[in-house]
Protein 1
Amino acid sequence: MTNAKIIEITYHFGDASVPPEYHRSYTITVTADKVGIVVDSYGKILADKRYEITNKQFNDIKNSLKRNKVRNCTLGDDEGCSGGTTERISFSDGENEIFSGSVYHCGGKDTGNLCGDITNFAEDVRNLVPGLDELCL
C-alpha cells in the first residue's frame, strides 16, 4: 500500500462510560482539502464542523501514519474490563476501506488490533481541528 492511494483518513475517539454531560466522543475525517469533526454524547450530536486544509496538511497526516507505524496487530483480550476509552483509525481509497484498526484502553491495558504510536498520530489529526477543546465542552 502506498500513501498515494489514501483518499480519506478517519480517527475516532470513544469516550469512557461517564454521565452524558461529561461524555464526549468524536470522529475526525480528513481528506485532501477538508477536515470534518462530529462530537457526540451517546449519539446526540453536539458539534458538526468542517474546515478547509491544504494538500500539504493532508500529505503530512498520511506521512504521520507511516512515521507513527500505525498498523494492525494482536493486543490480546480485555479480560472483562469495562468503562475504558476506544480509538479507531481507518483509511480508504475513496471506494474501499484499505485499513481499519481499533484499540480499547481499559484498566491500564490495551486490547484490540491497532498498534503504533496512536497517541502521536491522534495529536497530529486533532491539531487540524481549530478549537477542538471548545467543541468538546
Protein 2
Amino acid sequence: MNRISRDFFLFLSKNKLLNDGAKRWGFRLGASKVVAGTDINSAIKTIQSLNNDGLKCTVDHLGEFVTQKEEALEAKNNCINTLHAIAQNQVDCHLSIKLTQLGLDIDKSFCLNNVYEILYEAYKHNIFINIDMEDYAHYQPTLDLLKILRKEFNNVGTVIQSYLYRAEKDLDELTDIPLRIVKGAYKETPDVAMQSKNEIDENFLKLIKMHLSSGSFTSIATHDHHIIEQITAFVEINRIPKETFEYQMLYGFRTDLQLKLAEEGYNLCTYVPFGNDWYGYFMRRLAERPQNLNFVVKGIFSK
C-alpha cells in the first residue's frame, strides 16, 4: 500500500495542471507546515528563528523544470536576491539551487552562465552553493556542469542519491567535494535505481561512511534515527571531527530530533524551502512518507 501511495504522489508531483492550480490555491493544502512562506522575508524570519535554536540552514527558492528563458532568468535573479538577504541579515545559511530551474532543459551554456553569476555573488559573500540533484534524466548533465564549475569555484557541491547503482562510483570521483548524501526522492526505473528499502538503506550507510572517511565535508540527509545512531557510533569510533559533517533535515520534520542533535553538539542543518512553486516539492515529501497526508487534511479544515 505504501508503494502505491508513493507512486501516486510522485505522479502528482509532475502534473503541470495541478502545479499551476496550487499556486492559485496558496497554502490551503497544508504546505505551510513544511514550506517557509512564499517570499524571502518569510524565509529569513524562519531562518533567524532556527538559528536562534542552534540550527544552521540551507534555503531553496522552489522551482524546477523551467522551459522558458524568462523564467530561468527570473529564477537566477531570485537566487541572487536570496544571497543578498542572507548576507544583509547575517544568518547562518547557504543556498541550494536546481539546474532545471536555471535553464538546464533550455540550453546548457545558458544554464552554466546563470550558475556562474550566482556562484560569483555567493563567493563575494562567502556563501556556499549546493546543487540539488534532480531526476535521473538530469543526473549526468548536473555532474558535468559541476566539474566545470569546480575549476573556478570551491564554494559549490552537490548531492549523491544512494538508490542509484552508479552512486558509489560517482562518490569515488567526487571525494574532494562537499556532498549531501540522500536516499533519493524521485521515481526511477529498476535498471538505474534500487527499489528495495533495505538495499537503499544499506547503500546509504555505506556511502556516508565512505565520504566521512575521505575527510571531505559530508551532509547526512535523513530523518531516520536508526541510521543517525549508527553514524554517530561510527564517527565516535573513528574519531571523525564534528566540524567535518552535519546532519541535515527538512523544515517542519522531526523538529524534536533536530533540536536534540544540536544540543548534543552536532551540526544540524535545516533545509528551508520557500516560494510560490512549492507543489512538486510538497508532493515528493508526501511520497517519501504518505503519513504526512494528515498535513493536507489539517490544512484544508483549519481554513
Protein 3
Amino acid sequence: MKKQVIFSRHSRRQFIKYGSLAAGAVMAGPWLLRGQNLNSRLNIAQIGCGGKGMSDAQWCAQENLAALCDVNSANTDAINELLKQTGATARVYKDFRELLDKEKSLDAVDIAVPDHSHAVIAAAAIKLGKHVYCQKPLTHDVAEARLLRDLARQHKVVTQMGNQGSASDGLRWGVELVQSGLIGPVHEAYVWTNRPIWPQGLDRPAGSDPAPANLDWDLWLGTAPLRPYKGEWPEAQAAELQPYLYFSKNVYQPFNWRGWVDFGTGALGDMACHTVNWPFRALKLGYPTEIEAGSSGMKAEMYPASSRIRFEFPAREGLPPVTLHWSDGSNAPPAQITADVTAVFGRISRSGCIMVGEKGMVFSPDDGDQELRIFVKLKDDKELTAAPRHEGARAVPQTIPRNAFDNQEPPDFRHHMEWFAACKAGKPEAPYSNFDIAAYLTEIMLLGCVALRAGQKIEWDGPGMRAKNAPGAARLVKRDYRAGWKL
C-alpha cells in the first residue's frame, strides 16, 4: 500500500535521482528552470525517518538535507546509507530537542513521526522561527491544531501539512466545479474509506518485551503516558488480527500505532485530511455544530474496527446547511446514494467522496492523496461521466491557481516543492495546505474522534472550542502530557 514506504530498488533510485547533494551533480528539473539560485538551498532537518519520513527525505534531499532525527537508529542509518551514494551524509540525532538546540543554521524541518508527537515538535520548531512541513493529521488533538495555527501566524513561518493530494490539479478543479454551482447547492456529502488496515477494536495484549536495541522506547512514547514495550500480538489474539495482517503483527511500532488512542487518531484521523480535503474546501466548511458517532465498539485504548460519524454544519457564506457523513471499516454510504456509481462501475469504490447537490452530484473514487479523478452527473444526464468529458464541467472557469511544479511528477513531490519555494520567497500564505487551512481541517475532523471517545453526541461551540453538552469531553479536546514533556 502507498501508506507504507518500503525501500525498494525503485525508491532507492528515486532518492538518488532527486537528491541534490550529489558531488558536482545538479538535477535540471523544471523547478531549476524557474531561475532558482542554486546556492540558496534550504537547510532542512528530517524528523522521523521511517515510513513516510523516508519518502519525505527524498524530496528534502532536493535541498540540503542537513540533519536526521529518529528514535530508531535503523531509520537514520538507512537514509544516510543512501545519502552516501550521492557523496554526502547528514548529522544524526535521536531527540528532536537536541537537534533543535544544536542545529542553529536550520531553515526548516519536515516532521513525519506518529501523530502524538506532531504538535510538540512543530511548536518547538516554529518558536525558533523554522519553517515546518508536518505530515497529516497535523495534530493528535483539537487544541493542538488551533495552537499550531496561531503559532504559525505569530511567527510568520511557512507551513504545509502533508496531505499531498492538495498539489493535484484534480483537487483544485474539483473545488472549482462545486463552487461554480454546477451541481447546485449541496446539502449532503458522503466520504468513506477502507481504513483501518491496521489493528483496531482490540484490547491491549498482556505482558511486555525488551525493546529492540536500536529503538529508544521512552523517546518514542514522548508525550504519551508511559507503558511497556510489546513487540508482537500473542497467538491467542491471532483470529482477531486476521483482517489486518496485510501489514504485520506488530503491536505498536513501526506502523500499527495508528489504532491506539494514545498515539494515533484512527481511520478518521489518518485519512480524513486526504479524503475530506475536497468537500472541506469546496463547501467552505466551518465549525460543525453537532457531531454524532456510532461504531462497532470503542475500546478504552483503541479506536473501533468500523465507525460512522455525522457532522452537521450550519449555513455559511451564502451556502445552505450541510451534513457530512463519514464511514470507515466495513461501512459504506447508503445504496441509494451510491446507485449511480454502481450503475457505471458495477461496485462501490473502496474509498471515495460523493457530494449531492440540487442539480446533480459529483463523485471521486480516490483516497484524495494522489491525483483526484472526478465524475459528474447532472439531473438530465443518463449516467456519471468523467469530468474532463462532461460539457458542463469543461465550461467551469479556473479560479484557483495550480501548483506551479511539473504535473508529471508525483503530487507528494510537487507539494514539497511548493513549500520549498514559499520558504525561499518568505510567503507563508503561498502553500495550498498551510496551517491556516490545514489546522482548521484537522481540528474539524478530530472532533469525530472526540465524539467516538466521548460515546455521545457532541454539541460543539467552535469559537469557544468546547462541547456545550459534555463538559467531560474537555480532556479529549486537550490532553495532559507525560511529565517532562510540554508544548
